[in-house]
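new request in #modeling-help
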Amino acid sequence: MIPIDDSPLCRDGKVLILAFDHGLEHGPVDFTGLPESADPERTFEAATHPAVTSIAVQKGIAEAYYPSYEDDVDLLMKLNGTSNLWMGEPDSAVNCSVDYAAEVGASSIGFTVYGGSNHEIEMVEEFRDAQEAAREYGLPTVMWSYPRGQGLKNDTSEDTIAYASRLALELGADVAKVKYPGSKEGMEHAVRMAGPTKVVMSGGSKTTDREFLQSVKAVMDAGGKGLAVGRNVWQREDPTALLDALEAVIFEGASVDAALE
Amino acid sequence: MIPIDDSPLCRDGKVLILAFDHGLEHGPVDFTGLPESADPERTFEAATHPAVTSIAVQKGIAEAYYPSYEDDVDLLMKLNGTSNLWMGEPDSAVNCSVDYAAEVGASSIGFTVYGGSNHEIEMVEEFRDAQEAAREYGLPTVMWSYPRGQGLKNDTSEDTIAYASRLALELGADVAKVKYPGSKEGMEHAVRMAGPTKVVMSGGSKTTDREFLQSVKAVMDAGGKGLAVGRNVWQREDPTALLDALEAVIFEGASVDAALE
Amino acid sequence: MIPIDDSPLCRDGKVLILAFDHGLEHGPVDFTGLPESADPERTFEAATHPAVTSIAVQKGIAEAYYPSYEDDVDLLMKLNGTSNLWMGEPDSAVNCSVDYAAEVGASSIGFTVYGGSNHEIEMVEEFRDAQEAAREYGLPTVMWSYPRGQGLKNDTSEDTIAYASRLALELGADVAKVKYPGSKEGMEHAVRMAGPTKVVMSGGSKTTDREFLQSVKAVMDAGGKGLAVGRNVWQREDPTALLDALEAVIFEGASVDAALE
Amino acid sequence: MIPIDDSPLCRDGKVLILAFDHGLEHGPVDFTGLPESADPERTFEAATHPAVTSIAVQKGIAEAYYPSYEDDVDLLMKLNGTSNLWMGEPDSAVNCSVDYAAEVGASSIGFTVYGGSNHEIEMVEEFRDAQEAAREYGLPTVMWSYPRGQGLKNDTSEDTIAYASRLALELGADVAKVKYPGSKEGMEHAVRMAGPTKVVMSGGSKTTDREFLQSVKAVMDAGGKGLAVGRNVWQREDPTALLDALEAVIFEGASVDAALE
Amino acid sequence: MIPIDDSPLCRDGKVLILAFDHGLEHGPVDFTGLPESADPERTFEAATHPAVTSIAVQKGIAEAYYPSYEDDVDLLMKLNGTSNLWMGEPDSAVNCSVDYAAEVGASSIGFTVYGGSNHEIEMVEEFRDAQEAAREYGLPTVMWSYPRGQGLKNDTSEDTIAYASRLALELGADVAKVKYPGSKEGMEHAVRMAGPTKVVMSGGSKTTDREFLQSVKAVMDAGGKGLAVGRNVWQREDPTALLDALEAVIFEGASVDAALE
């Protein structure tokens, strides 16, 4: 962890990452309900919303779309990922180097670590290389910290999420992206474990506006520093409305009711 | 994806790759029906046809034959490949470096990725190295995107082909070479998933002229940008006739009937 | 082994490492009994005690907290570690490079080797790289020498601990951190096997003050050079009291009774 | 494939490699019938015969004996090999780098690839490194192309040998060393598949002079470019007589009868 | 093999290596009978005997003790080794680089290769790197050539030992350290197979003076060039007496009876 409040990834010390790596991780099936959501441009447009501090995409999407948005969007390059065709123990291919991410214009990097997978050792060593290279470029590092694999039964238990956020601190991530442990108390525990590493909630699958904002509010009340959201934004017909509400909750401290008005 | 319309791989934004790596991938059995087809020179001659934007061969063939054709043919160096003697999970040896491909004179590179194979992680990381090295030389990258392996039952379903073309976009390929999903609608889906990455159809095994041209026409009508063809050209006694027809369909927008005249 | 008495890791040739890598190795469960113990700052504060020669933490904790303590605490960077979510044969990810440890300000490094694990070969080769790189920076090397794995039944037998300390000598560690073999005689054997490599006891889980100090005294009487202690310090409500006692026993040769007064 | 007719490996475009790597590949058992054949000097002496274009040995033999023969013998450094104590899937350790081969004075290199082995991918990638490094030194590359492994039932069938020689062409070997497929027709097929890559027969175990020369003659008549011979030369009491006959058949186009006179 | 007679490893072309790597390979159990034998200084003292051409130790022992003996003892750095806690197929961790061995002051290097192990390929490739790096420093290379593993039933048969010494020659070792094959004839066979590579006997477990000297004498009579001895020297109360006798047998051609007087 190093101080990142002055980096483009943060606004008032908080973070709202708009993630759009689902075409790789989940495949086209995620775009079925709203076919136009397959188009990265639509999500880049959404990322121009002032609530969004950075857009998180894979290398190919970054190369193709970021140049048109470099004045209006900050780029978090997600450095690893795997298709859901993969049938092995949880693992993630490093598909972009830090050097190349910097060249494309990224102002931060993202990296998945599956603690507890049979590939944990290898992934942590790849994370080391990425994190140390990112330090040389002065780029903040966000860890997608998702315990998963043969030893994990329930990967959103409070204990698992607390461990996930601690791993991010111990291994040198500046931001820990973890799943919501189901309660404000669970998130408080995770936040305490992370020390100065900022904890942000992973948005997960699409829910109702209210339900989603309530979990975000709980995260903020628990001391979390924001959100990495994907489907709950770009699977909506009107991403802007929810981004307005998220801006209110995350950056302005609004209540869910107020944000929904 | 980066803009490649001005590269030698493209003509009017479209692509016709004449592939001749079958001696490695399939072995001499592919030449049985037409013994002279084993001779790479015959296919290099065919590649001088104006319809062909590049010839795709492995390193050894490139070294031996390209120097005599460098004024008349553009070289796509296929960087990986495997013999069909291989009995393991789908995988592909990187048998040529990008540095060497550039030295031999390649103006683009090709790389196979078997999404869903137990070797997906490794292949994607090898692809990363190749793609980033190719970027340094300014060489477009074509991904042979073929989901295959333990998790894949039907590798030409619409969903699989759409995922294949999305993987190409997400991982930074400039052209996605995918199998024909069986219909124009299936190809439209694949094309939408690829965004600005050009989707070209993989020619597959030899069929009749009409049948082949109909699938090519469907690809072009679906928004595909061309074709990578091998056996359907060089297994024919007269490659030129079919190349004339392909030129009409791909670059001149002709109907299949018109092209067959 | 090289002479390290003049290094910050030593005081009068003896060593007291305050270890705080449990958040990675054991997870938040270690902090349950005393929630404030999760906060690294609390242990950094404890490390300002004159009894402590160095604090041992992982990269992320070092980055976040060491800068505020660099005038009052010496940093031992622990270079590898694993979560207890890991279900494979004992192994440890190298999560920090020596170059980076030096840049963060470490004055010594720590490295776990699990002799007898199926990963022994790999870990010893990683240790080689770390030890030789540390030599270039002039940083002493502490081996967490813990025989463990398929071949090991009882990992605190005298023979196993003696082998553990000999491995540290043979492989070039300056300090061997080994478990207590249960008796002064066992520790004498381990000390003899280590030659000039300093043997320090690994503190283990929390016990009573008297019991703990008695084992430390036995280690010193056996020729050991000190202690690496974690939970027995920071899981106590008042770490200072025990550190005062440890200072008396380790650096002033006091009896346990005298130290407890 | 690059032009190598002007290299020391060739005489009038043809090749006669005297191979003496059996001490590694087969072990001392190959020397049992003729104990003095164990002495590399005896085979180096034989290699001074004008019929021999290069001697193929492993690094250690080259280091020890080549310096005394550098004016009279050309050195082909065989870069990989395995003892027959190895019980795994066919594989071959790369026991000499190209840099070192060049330093010792090699004028060409040799490399085994077992197509169809579970190690095919790895061996082909090692071959790539060797071939590309050899290109930098301007050293011709000879592939010992031996399909072998779990998928291979009969490794001297015509189809297998034809595939073996094609692999050599596709992967960039200048010379393909393949087993004799049992007939002139089979060898013609292999030669056609290799294009400009020179196909030479692998000598195999010792037979009668006539039988051996007949197969060599068949190879030359089939368009083969020569022979890599070991045991059929150095297991003979008088290597010179057979080398005289081989010179006649390979370089002078003599009939077997004429060569045997 | 390169000429090494003028190197510190040799005296009149012969070699007597005093090996003391047992603390790593066997563990403290080897010191049980004579506790003071655990102290490396005692063996370094023994190594000042004029019969000893070099002492063979692992990195850590070399770092700690060699500086005090550098004027009186020559250092052979053993570069790899494994604890006997290891339960896998025979393998050996490379625990010291050649660069570091040279920096510590080694005048030769030692490296174990287990021919026939499932790790043979990997070990031979590691040997290649070590041997070629040693060549750059001009350091002679000694191969501990011990066929061992799944395919090996009797690893001291004449055939196995002959193969072991041949492997050393073929792979570029300057000295082959092999086990005694049980007879002078067996050793003669091994010596013939090694060509100019010097064959030295591996001392093995402790026996009587006479029995040990008789095998050494047989080795010398068989054309062997010396001995690598460990336990038969340092497990003796008076190492000097046996070293005197070994000097007589190895360097002065004395009979066993004369040497024992």
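bot summary: The mean pLDDT of chain C is 96.
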